[in-house]
Records
---
Amino acid sequence: MSADAREFRVLGPVELVVGGRPAALDAAKPRTLLALLLLHLNRPVGHDWLIDQLWGEKPPRTAEATLRSYVYQLRKRLLGDGDRTVIRSRSKGYVLESEDEAMDAHRFETLAVQGRQLLQHRRFDEGAALLRESLGLWRGAASFADAEAEAVRDKARLLDELRLEVVEQCLAAELESGSPIATLAELEALTTEHPVREGLWRLLMLGLYSAGRQAEALEAYQRLYRLLDIELGIRPSPPIDELHRRILRDDPGLRPAVPESVSAGRATPSRLAAPRQLPSSVGHFTGRETQLSILDELLVAPVESAGAMVAAVTGTAGIGKTALAVHWAHRVADRFPDGQLYLNLRGFDPVGQPVSPREALRHFLEALHTAPAQMPSDLEGQAALYRSLLSDKRILVLLDNARDLDQVRPLLPGTAASLTLVTSRNSLSGLVAHGARSIALAGLDDQDAGRFLQRRIPDGRPAAEPEAAARIIEACDGLPLALAIVAARATTRPDFSLTALAAALHRTDERLDALADPDPRVDLRTVFSSSYRDLTPASARLFRLLSVHPGPDITPEAAAAVAGGTASRAGRLLAELTHGNLLTEPTPGRFAFHDLLRAYSAELAATVDTAGDKEAATLRLLDFYLHTAYAGSRLIDPNRDPIALPDVPPGIAPVGLADAESAMAWFAAEGAALTAAVHHAAEHGFDARCWQLAYTLRDHLDRGPWQDQSVMWQTAMDAARRTGDTGAEARVIRLLAEAHSQLGRTEEAQALLDRSLALCEDLDDRVGQAHAHLMHGRLWMRRGRTAEAMDSAHRALDLYQAAGHRSGQANALNGIGWSHAQSGDYRKALAYCEAAMALLTSIGDRHGQAATADSLGYAHHRLGLQSQAIAFYRRALALYRDLGHAQGEAATFVNLGDAQHAGGDTAAARRSWRRAAAIFDHLGHADAEAVRAKLAALQ
């Protein structure tokens, strides 16, 4: 570094040094700005992020101008001949360009790594000298000591923790070198400064004992015991207790190690040259608070409760297993004073072979300083020696990217003093069955994903383009690897807008292209492929063909239809895919794709399977849903007009639904998949199945939002029209008209009913004409035109009678009775409605009985007979609830509230109207506002 070079010091107060002399930065904000730029040395930092860090949520109106002023001040301090340090303007931000060595924190970390490497090779004097040199760079007890920004404080905490680790390692190396007396005073001061850091107390006890001061070593233990008991209410950790016992019995194994030149070939590792193999923690780690808490619980588990403590972090490729494990391991490293072992087992490495247990054990035994001559040649011998070496130690073992239990089992310590953390794409159910704690990772939620992007893209674009950021989060479906790839692309290409990146991610055929990377370890296709290639041929085929399923999740029965096999075989294949985390099982018996894995599955299907294979799989799936749904709809409403379906194709096994209750449960569980299948059928040209499946969903959809139904029936009507089947078109038109009517679109509903009526007249379909007239009557009633409504209901009755359609006749009688009630003739209304109820009861039509009970309740209410009215309304409610008919239930709650209010029970009326309003709101129904007006009038 030249004599006039710029140097940045953060190991203590933030300083800028020019030519060896501090350059004054008296104001706090410019010092903090320098610290923020140093956090991202040689990387662009956005204006918005800098302003947020400098002033928080309430920046001054002049923030941008003030920021430019601070940058100008720093640039003036950085001016110098021949030095390449400079602050450059970038699009919406700045970048501080300098050599890494110009920052004391970089030099500290470099020296610390070099010192640790020497310690690993038992070169204690040299290693301790480098560690001392690294610690000499510190100018105070805390890094970034006078910087105020949150991001700076986060980095400061990491550096401060690293400093303490280096102090411990340095003192341990000096004790190992055989000179304990020189370090004891420092250890006494450090245990006073950091009283609950057990690693320092352990070194103090060892140092005192090694110096021949056994009684003082035992007294140090008593001091620690009292301190932990008073301050935290806990005991010292098992390794400290074990060291105490060994000092009490004057264990010769605690003597300082003999220099390596004397003890060549000895198998016993040094007790103080502890391995520190953890890789660097991920910067800006985000979320996972629940999972971190679960891992923290392992630290307080009673040692005597079980054998070795093991946790398995599992999840699909790119879900962040390694990031979580390494982050937590660093966070608790001080709880494992005998060291941390780490190995990437490469179980699903896209470019390498998995590490064998023999290779892994050799790696760990070398880290524990086992001499080559003492290394057993067989796997069992290596595993036994490994367990022996860890038996009296508290070590954290991190086994990353494990393939299966066979790869992991020989690497597990034998005692509860150590803890093993395993990450894998497989579920490792065998490990969990033997007592391991299972932590299955899902994607980040939207809030954490948003924070992830904000921290990884420091130029403020996520805040400046919130809609684009939200679309990126949606496309990545919470997958941290995908989010990281997008963030890296955005950071390296500050000229790219997030809107453009989001658009590429939402183009289905380009989604994985937008997440491609030259590095196979982070290229999403390559990462996924390393899981896919491990599948059996049958499960790989099912994985590909499942991409034809349009719903959010799938059952074994539906998967069997896709694959063309039995449900039991499909269940086994789904379990295999779930074990490999290519599918998830969000609820028992229902399996789902991560969105990006679905895209990968579809790509594979497009290249491996023929168009005929995919079409056949789609057709089998639609036939499975159609025949199951049709049978279910007939159980729910046997009086509904039937439609003709083709026979069940060979190889398709519809679900055997026993009764109406089981049918409604099936519809409730499969609702999202069924509605998606209707649209899927239309998109792929299966028009007959589209309208037929939609028709079977009428009773199920009646419980959902009418807006959704409107879209559904429009799709089905267009499909029916394409088939040329005018009878089918007329049926579906009426359902679309009903949805429009319920949404208050009476003119559109009227026009649709006119077309349905015309089609039925051309076909001489009397029942279809009657249905249209009856629905016309309901429309007239909604518009307050009672005479026209009654006329339409009488026309419907005549046509139903001519066709011998008994449930239709009953519904028409109820319609006439309702019209009389609306015109004020309540006695005549009762006569018609009672006749309707008798007919409906005789044929077992519960849907009609519910509507007619509501009409009878209304007539009694208007006659002033409130107790009878309430009884009929409650009967209607019970029927509607049993049928899952939400809209009917809501309307009856309104009427029940009216009767209760008229009877003087205001509190009951309020409860009924609130229930009605809530249901109408869920359905998107136009009557919700009228109910709220009733509630407002009660205030």
---
Amino acid sequence: MKKAVLSAALWVTLGLASTPSAWADDTQDFKKILDDHWHQSLTESPTFASELGDRSANGRLSENSPLARQRRQDFNDALLTRLAGVKATELNPQDQVNYKVFLRLRQMEKESYRHPDYLFPITNREGWHMFFAQTPASLPFMEAADYEHYLGLLADYPRYNAENMAVLAEAVEKGYTHYCTSMKGYETSISTHIVEDVTTSAFYSPFTRFPANMSEARQKKVTERGIALITEKVIPAYQLLYKLYTEKYAPACRKTVGITSLPGGKDYYSYLIRNFTTTDLTPQQIHDTGLSEVKRLRGEMDKIIKKVGFKGTFPEFLVFLRTDPRFYAESPTDLMEKAALITKRMDGQLPKLFGYLPRNPYGLMEIPSDIAEKTTAAYYMPSQGDGSKSAGNYYINTSLLKSRPLYTLEALSYHEAVPGHHLQGAIQKEMELPNFRKYHYFNAYGEGWALYSERLGLEVGFYTDPYSDFGRLTYEMWRACRLVVDTGMHAFGWSRQQAIDFMAENTSLSLHEITTEVDRYITWPGQALAYKLGELSITALRREAEQRLGDQFDIRAFHDMILGNGSLPIAVMEDLARDWMAAQEAKNIKHAQNNKQN
């Protein structure tokens, strides 16, 4: 297959293709709506536009002023009005799916304006200043135009920073701040970029490497402009943010853990659950699901403890895992090499699990030292644009090595790289989808797929070390615990320490990892629920397909179907999966009938 056309091919397989004449008018209206939305999206997100090769807004950052937010709200309302005039039933089957997805996104955006979403521009591990600091590592810098674009971003940062600072100040005034303990030390994410020697700044790094086709004179001129902008624009902006955060925001931090303690917090948390999980589950339903999964997984973990011959209690086994030197890398290089070996071995097994593999590769990178101690064990960053000029990257945290256990490295690598985030994201970018779907990410689908991918290692002969298999279970247990502690803290009055204790009692994660994770859940309510709920949906669909198709079930075809429709809300994914099952059943019946006749 020279080009990924899985989504279109799926519709033909389902026997749903038909002539376009019947839906021409509504199709054109819908296409115009999508085109207008995409154009506005690029206008509102100039940095993303530049990643796609659109230089019309070169050197400009996005806007977050009250006028800009109102403009986006008005535009979204206008889109909903126009969508109401399109008869979805008159669209071809593939556009009916596009319509369902697009309508849900517009409805969720409309609802977001009723909530204090915008008043939380930071979490305990994220913020606009941190994203901006990653710009030098994320841009390509392959030609002179890339440097001009970067210089423009440096020049525009004070305006961008001021608009976001105004939001932070408004959050303080209205009382919508984060929980104090979870934000402890956050100011270092700002102060690390306030340097006296510009050449030590993260923003200076692009000027230490230039493409061969840039003359020395041009390099010198660009470097001088860069130094001036970092000195006169960027660093002073970080100083202003540091002053605002330390003198106003931090002293006004929230004294209660749960987001539901804020005015309108209960309604806001329900919205966040719908937004991140794409389900209508209640906090109680999610909490109970988590407790059930914790119980199931605990039984599987006990079997491994017995298998390795450990003589002691479950808590004692966790202490053993957290303290035995054999389970930890000796150096950052050692950790990176082990991760490289794991992912390379999985690369060779992917054809057993998938019929289609993407052309875009991925690399391994260390998480930047300035954010390493405050962030997660690893993360994935997709390639820019359509992936034609850059690879995706699996970032690994090599700081605090005694809190990065090797027994979880297999599961972590399958989740972040292959067959997890990289495989799913790279395939989606190669598909023939409307742009709004090609570049959109539904948390429950994407994180659910990545968690489901962790188990796929078993199916191709990995996790041969029982401790590593225990690590796989502890990662799944970690996601099950999230259902319990996120709802526990934000809906049922749990304290931060209760959440930490529950995680410590049920997972073999290090105490450092557990603490940073709980603080993440406190400052990012609802997002952590997406992983396990998404995985449970995919797993349930697979079991249903296995039952319905019997010995005709093809794991490669099932995975191609799940990934071949791109990122979707859970309900839409389930509908398409069952359509695929029905089509496979019909095909199998027809094949059996033909064989009988022959």
---
Amino acid sequence: MNRIHFHTLILFLLAFGLTACKDQLDVGNPNAPTVAGNVTDESGLVSFAQGAVYINGFVNGDGWLGNSYFSLPYGYSELLGDVVGAQASNQLVSTLSIPDYVTLDNGQKLANSSPSIGQIRANNTRAQTGSGYNPTYYQWLNMMAMNSSLNSVLKLIDKISYSGDAASKVATFKAWAYFWKGYAYASIGSMYYAGLIIDEEGKTSSEYVTHDAIIERSNYYLNEAATALGAVKTTADYEEVLGRLIPSFSQVGNGGVLTTDMWKRNINTLLARNILVNKLAPFVNKNPSATITKSSTTAMSTADWNAVLTLATNGIKKGDYVFTGRSTSSNYLFSASGGTVASLTTGTNTSSTFKLSERFVQNFKTGDKRLTNNFEQTGTYLDEMTFGTRWSIVDGGKGAAGVYVYGNRTVGAYELYIAGSYEENALMLAEANIRLGKISTGLAFLDDVRSYQGAGIATVADKNLVLADALQELVQERRVALVFRGLSFYDSRRWGWTYDIANGGGSYNNTVLSSSGTVNTKAVINYNFLDYWDIPADESSLNPTTSSVPTKNPNF
């Protein structure tokens, strides 16, 4: 990591720092130069290791739009995945996800005079970063900062004296650091064309490697975490450490102190995700055999699908604890009203920061209780291209028992998924089985997700669907079940929708509300987005490459 990033981070002084409430976020300031040197006991290491993840990874530097990683970098995923749109100009949120053109039902073509690729590259400068208009900056900043801090954590672990079973506590701390390093590398490798591998405290590097190499490094650390968990012998000491590393306010609902087996299953889910979201599985215009002719990645092979199937079979199960986040009234990881994409989208569309996309809503099937419980047409927001919408999210839902709630701005009510979830794992099992020819088996997993979220619609596993229809069910369910979890762009990319129609991409049969208020149901959208982002100028300009790997995506 370039030193300039670390020095920049020091400027973001924590509001709670070392005085944080013990029952909320018990962190030190991982950026203060003297903190690491002063960590001499378990309590200090807990604070430092927790802050490395939750503060450097998910808070610092994200106060431009909302107030966390889950409102800004997650926001870009939902924008580029066409789940939400925006009117505000902050960080290009109103222009970044505008497609190159939209063809309406009547044949009228609406062209974008400032295409997304040109927008993102024109604003990828240090000057625009300082002004708050460089989208490429934030995810890189957070994940590189998290990784750097965890390098310091790993250097400290063997220097501390421990009470109880020291070996089990050391293994727990190492599993924590390895897991989140794997998470950070996955985030970099899944979003940027290239990256840096830095695994020593204080080390810098100009040797950029491809996103595939970054994903390999993610896999390495996720597997190291699983190995460390295997060294835990005393459950009580393990639970004591992990129970302090995970904030108490996140130990509710699906969040909690994971058993070692639960954590290993969480790891397998992320390993499966690393394969799935970084390969192509084109499904363009309902064609399972579609191909993309110009891309920064390759298509899923049978071996890839089998690897996903094996990992997800041993992935998160129903009832497993996962890593989640919750809002609090103070000293928060994120606020209830502005810290997540969900909170910024909840409320009447004419006043919410993000506007719910018509393309999102069209994926619900008739009679789905998730639609009727969460969304209503309380206002109409009209705009050019694709941002017009008739739909708004009802704050807290309408109270239907057992039905998933998409947005809740009450403090502590909304459960944010930071890493994997049961639904994601089940839908990976569904897609892998479908692609491997076991359609009914795959659709049974999809049916279970719908039941789990209280959709209340008829099952499809028993309908003898052909491949194209089964994949359409899968696409629709991933779009609605995994929304606001930072996955929407990756899905649109791997299904081929974000690529230029000239290269086999595009999206068809879309609902688009035109600026005149006309509802189109068969609109064609040519997004033509970058598939993997360029390295932010704050890194590439100040830390120029010494390798042959470009820092600018050469395929666009």
---
Amino acid sequence: MSCCATPLPADAETVAAASREEMLLASRDLGNGLRQTDLAAPGVHCAACIHTIESGLARLAGVAHVRVNLSTRRVAVKWRGEAPPDLLVAMARLGYPAHLFETDADVRDPEFSRLIRALAVAGFCSMNIMILSVSVWSGAEPETRAAFHWISAALALPCLLYAGRVFFASAWSALRRGRTNMDVPISIGITLAFGLSLYDTVHDGPHAYFEAATSLIFFLLIGRTLEHVMRERARAAVRGLMRLAPRGATVLRADGSRDYLPVNEIEPGMRIALTAGERVPVDGVVEDGVSDLDCAIVTGESAPSSAEPGAAVRAGTLNLSGPLTITASAKAADSFLAEMVRLMEAAEGGRARYRRIADRAAALYSPVVHATALLTFLGWMAASGDWHRSITIAIAVLIITCPCALGLAVPIVQVVASRRLFESGIMVKDGSAIERMAEIDAVAFDKTGTLTLGRPRLVNGATIAPGDLEIAAEIARLSSHPLSRTIATAAEPAGGLALSEVREHPGLGIEARLNGRLYRLGRAEWALAGGPTGRNEDGGTVLGCDGNLLARFAFEETLRPQARTTIAALRGDGLEITLLSGDTPAAVHATAAGLGIKAVSASLMPAQKVERLAAMASRGRKVLMVGDGLNDAPALAAAHVSMAPASAADIGRNAADFVFLRDGLDAVPRALTVARRAGRLVRQNFALAVLYNAIALPIAVAGHVTPLIAALAMSLSSILVVANALRLDARPTGRRSPPRSQRAQDLALAWKQGE
């Protein structure tokens, strides 16, 4: 929608000023004499706001670059010099009071509550005024008509003063600084319609058009509230990443003492003690201890990785099984997790270009319509000299060209499409994603948890001796490792096995004694150590007895249902298919070969996935990213549009535009089909709205339409748009959607699996 800079009190510059020491401490050193300071600007709403802030701050001495993130309302300023520029004072002068951006803030913006209250007031007033107007239009007696007009005026006044102040404050803020925005013509139209209606009410006129002013406020507030919801959803994904970082860590001092320090106070070189179950606070190197780490945030793979002295660890990874001592190699602000947060915020900021296009289109519409109404008024004044008739015709022009049909053209189709997708087990989190889905010409898949279910499957269980398989399964039941859980399900529990001296070795495997013999289940080089078959073993999972090989276990990942048919369907549709994974090259290429995917990239870090998507975008590709892991969140946010299964991590679901609730990967082509149909209907709706205005506007300008007829025509155009959108809900004969109870069960089950 439009911008909404906030008027400032007289002492705003004094309030906005902060000590240079505080600004310097809040900045981040980027190297080469360049520093960055992040500000929070709650008043940022649209492209005009972004342009005003970026151009205004860029003029300050020392400022090298300014970028505004519309989703998070974050202003990133890069500057050079010994002291920071007066950024907060400059922001206050521009009309956008700001404060230092706090990355750990988790407070809901109070503007959402204000918008909801304003929307409720506008909806209540406009609907009731419309009901009263129907009675007046139906031929009410003069006394009844006058009473209804006064009641309508009484209802319209609080709507204008309370709900309309969102637009009036923005318009005034722009005008007092010599600028204009979309809210200026909107405010003029609202005031004009209310003023003439009040004049006619006072003079017992036959008609009043309070519903025009209040309905316009109501529809515009719907759009602004939906925008705010989208921004909050973008912030939720970033906050989910932030929650992976611990608030502090235990630091080991040189004198043997221990201190618990906030994570922002940890410096490179500090020694940190981690117990099992704690997350790594900053990037570092293992100094002492052996453990398993859950590195899903880095690689996207569910299998734990071994951590031993000398191994690098990343912030946000989870220490699973043993105590570790690590040496910090970076500050929290420069850690892997902080980089992921910045990647997501940058991606969300880039996505704002779609809203900016909509802003420019909407901003163009209102000035044209109001200019037409003004010219109509002046023309009729020159022709007839009757100011009341002239302004009545001008209001009819405003009403008949009210952007209700244009405003409904997209959202009504999105609502119907969202319903259709939900009936197919697909949740739509962002209505604009349906439009972006229809534009894709390439699809990038993650592997584990996306093309596969992320659950390993034992493929050679039938070739292993039953006795050896029973022993392995009994030992595996004592471990929580994903491969152990798979082995444990391969054989029925053997009640006669009395295991003793059970011990799990993090990163290696688990051992136990049975009948005086030592059995080991785990990595081959460890399980067979010291035995005759152990010298040449360099990988794989085996069962060993006193160093002798008893059984070797082969695993493969289970493909997600309909994976092959989905890839074939997308390829047949002319889409470019790419596989981007953090897993090992061998595992990735094996999956790609089974699905016939040629373009493959393995062992990718999250930032590298984003780079691959950026490279595809630079070639003109509009990419759908399908992923599920923590490490996929920046890529999901950076892609043109994104999907994730309900089994994905919370962050992945938050970052994705679509979430499919069932196991089948056929949700991808199904969503694409619905999105393309929705795109066609949106274009048809725009054509209907434009055709309506092309026919109605000349008739209204010619004076052949009263405000009453104009209101009816405006309603008819909206009905046509809605009826056309409902065509998307028509189903081919013989096909039925699942019953509502089944869809509810699918939703509950899939979301529970995701947790």
